[in-house]
Write a structure and sequence with these properties.
mainly alpha; two-stranded antiparallel ribbon; 77% helix; 5% strand
Length: 82
Amino acid sequence: MKLSRPVSWFLLAFGVWSWIIWVTFVRNLVKDGSGLAFDDGEPTAYFWVHLLLAVVSFVLGTVVGGIGLRGLRALSRTSRTS
């Protein structure tokens, strides 16, 4: 399957965006002082569920960004040989 240049860039940008958003979210989650993420210093179910969401999003962002990067590399190889 051949991806177009705009689609490849979109996928790569989505992967980077996912990492930026979720790293920020995890930092805020760890520093949470409202009592949602930690109860007497112990992680709550809220913390574990949101940490799991972040980890899954890191993985998906990496995969999607990797597909975009591979698409861009394939396009650059094709344009050099043509």
